[in-house]
Amino acid sequence: MAGPDKKKLYPNEKIKTVCYISNLPKRPNVEIGDYTYYSDNHKSPENFYDNIEHHYEFLGDKLIIGKFCAIAEGVKFIMNGANHRMSGITTYPFNIFGSGWEKVTPAREDLPFKGDTVIGNDVWIGQNVTIMPGVKVGDGAIIAANSTVTKNIEPYTIYGGNPAKFIKKRFSDEKVEFLLKLQWWNWDEEKIFANLEMLTSEAGLDQLIE
Fold first, then answer.
1. Least packed by Cβ within 10 Å: which of 13, 17, 113, 163?
2. Is 54 a catalytic residue?
3. Which of 29, 27, 47, 25 has its CA nearest to residue 38?
4. Do strands 130-131 and 76-78 pair parallel, antiparallel, or not at all (unpaired)?
5. Considering the domain boundaries, does residue 6 fall inside one?
6. Among 42, 54, 55, 84, the one annotated catalytic
7. What is the pLDDT of residues 4-63, one digit of tens each?
8. Do residues 64 and 151 both lie within one domain?
C-alpha cells in the first residue's frame, strides 16, 4: 500500500468534506498539484472554484497551487480582475454599466496588474484567509486563519493578521535550505509512504539531515 489514490476526487469516501481539487474539472489559467485538498464543512468542497474571484480569462493571470497543500474553507483568491483604474480622479468603473459610459473603458495597461498568484508546495492556508492578486507564497508556509495576504510570504514561515505579517520561521535557515533542496513532495508515492513517520515527526528533519 502506498497511500490514497491521487486521482480520486474524494480520497476518503467516508469524508465528503475533503476533496483533492486537482481532480475537479479543469479550468483555464488554474493549475493545482497532486494531493492538494480543499476542506469545507458547510458546502461541497467541489465548489472550490467559487473561491477564485474576479478571474477573467482574457486578462491571462494564473492561479498556481503546488502539491500537498491544505486549504481550509472560506479561503478566497482575489485575482487581477478585481482591480480598478487608479490614475484618475475617481476609481469608479463607469464603463461596466454601458449606456454610453463604456466610452471610458480602460485599456489593460491602464489597470493595476500584479501577475500570477502562486502558492508553493506543502502550504497550509487557514480558514477564511484572503489572498490578494499576484501574491507568491513559498513552500512549507503557514497562513493563520482570517488573514489577508497582500505581500509575498517566504518559504517555511508563519504569517497571520490583516494585513498578514511575519510571525516566525518554522526552522533555521540551514534547515529551510535543506528542505527546499529535498523537495519531498516530488518523491514517488512509495518513498513518501516509506518515510511517513520521518516526515511527520518532530525529530524527522534532524534524522534526514544526518
1. 13
2. no
3. 47
4. parallel
5. no
6. 84
7. 889 999 989 889 999 999 999 999 999 999 999 999 988 888 999 999 999 988 888 999
8. yes
In a domain, 90, yes or no: yes
Domain total of the chain: 2
Highest mean pLDDT among 31-35, 41-45, 82-86, 91-95: 31-35
Q: Are 99 and 202 found together in one domain?
A: no
At residue 54, φ and ψ (nearest 5 deg) are 60, 40
Residue 110 C-alpha cell reads as 491602464
Rounded to whole angstroms, the Cα distance separating 208 from 60 reads 40
Residue whose C-alpha cell is 497551487: 65
Sorted by sequence, the CB contacts under 8 Å of residue 194 that are 6+ apart come out as none
Residue 80 lies in a domain: yes
52 forms beta bridges with 77
Residue 87 falls inside a structural domain: yes
Domain membership of residue 147 as a residue range = 18-170
Are 160 and 143 in contact, with CB atoms under 8 Å apart?
yes
* pLDDT at site 1: 58
Extended beta strands in the chain, E state? 18-20, 30-32, 37-39, 52-53, 63-65, 70-71, 76-78, 117-119, 124-125, 130-131, 136-137, 142-143, 148-149, 157-161, 164-169
Are 125 and 199 in the same domain? no
